């Protein structure tokens, strides 16, 4: 028997065995490359530190045979969660990836942030495929939901955060959750029970573990216990791959961009953009608080006052930032470039 066919049969046999005995386990990877197990009571247990890798592990995924994989920059590694030992698998088209999930067909899906495209890597055939141009990037994870791949992104001006669903059968891309304002999700995974039941878990930059409900646009914060000195980047479940077996449903498109209050969206002005030192606010009064976040979701600056009209940003490094503005009328989000 050819070696490739033998390996395929072996992995399918492992799949049969593991699917009958494997308990569902949630894992996370932190900004220090540390692998954690998330327990049923929402405590966390440190297992190992992944290495060696030249970059941080942006996300992890679990194959049907229980093997853990991680993506670091544009490389895929196999990870032993008990020892942290990593083995290089393949280099992906540049550059950069922070999302990863594995299907029942042993295919790793990931979004190329610079190309805004969905890729997949087949573990059995060692092939890389550009699946689709999404037109959106993500700073977070991917998971399966009713036969769709879901991920988070945001509008160009940062005024609304969106969870999108890509239908693997039809190629349709729709909005399934709208959140007007800063609401970033890094890790996403599924505690799979069946195609019609289960739990979608998400982790945000504040290490808040959320139970997401896409049916009614709500979420519940869970009593998660995690070291305050670290941040979880990605999540993965040992049964997450089963979601890829569900029939792809055409989900309702909430059209988040059309549902934003246009007055709030367009009222506030910010100039000059790009800027190299000072930002000025227009068409808004009595600003009491401002926060600036980088594109990883980290707060890099906060300013409070009675009527803020200008913000000094000369101390920020070059890049794209989100400015969150608060006054008596509510909260507004604007994006700017520091040059």
Automatic annotation (TrEMBL):
Residues 270-337 form the Secretion system C-terminal sorting domain. The keyword Signal applies. Keywords: Signal. It comes from the Bacteria. This is Secretion system C-terminal sorting domain-containing protein. Residues 1-23 form the signal peptide. The keyword Endoplasmic reticulum does not apply. InterPro entries: Secre_tail. NCBIfam families: Por_Secre_tail.
């Amino acid at each position: 028997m050819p070696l490739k066919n033998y390996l395929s049969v072996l992995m399918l046999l492992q799949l049969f065995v593991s699917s009958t005995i494997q308990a569902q386990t949630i894992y996370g990877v932190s900004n220090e490359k540390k692998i954690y197990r998330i327990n049923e009571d929402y405590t966390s247990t440190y297992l190992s530190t992944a290495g060696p890798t030249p970059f941080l592990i942006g996300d992890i995924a679990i194959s049907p045979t229980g093997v853990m994989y991680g993506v670091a920059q544009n490389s895929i590694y196999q990870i032993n969660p008990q020892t942290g030992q990593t083995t290089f698998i393949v280099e992906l088209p540049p550059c950069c990836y922070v999302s990863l999930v594995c299907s029942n067909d042993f295919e790793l899906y990931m979004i190329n942030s610079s190309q805004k495209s969905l890729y997949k890597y087949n573990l059995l055939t060692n092939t890389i495929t550009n699946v689709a141009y999404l037109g959106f990037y993500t700073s977070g994870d991917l998971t399966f939901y009713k036969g769709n791949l879901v991920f988070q992104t945001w509008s160009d001006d940062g005024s609304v955060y969106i969870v999108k669903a890509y239908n693997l059968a039809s190629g349709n891309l729709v909005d399934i959750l709208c959140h007007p304002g800063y609401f970033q999700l890094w890790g996403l995974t599924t505690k799979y029970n069946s195609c019609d039941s289960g739990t979608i878990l998400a982790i945000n930059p504040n290490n808040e573990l959320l139970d997401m409900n896409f049916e009614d646009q709500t979420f519940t914060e869970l009593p998660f216990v995690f070291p305050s000195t670290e941040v979880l980047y990605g999540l993965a479940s040992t049964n997450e791959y089963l979601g890829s077996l569900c029939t792809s449903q055409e989900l309702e498109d909430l059209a988040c961009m059309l549902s934003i209050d246009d007055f709030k969206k367009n009222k506030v002005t910010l100039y000059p953009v790009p800027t190299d030192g000072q930002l000025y606010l227009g068409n808004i009064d009595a600003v009491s608080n401002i926060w600036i976040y980088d594109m990883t979701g980290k707060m890099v600056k906060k300013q409070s006052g009675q009527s803020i009209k200008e913000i000094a940003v000369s101390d920020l490094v070059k890049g794209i930032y989100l400015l969150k503005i608060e006054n008596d009328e509510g909260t507004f989000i604007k994006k700017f470039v520091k040059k």
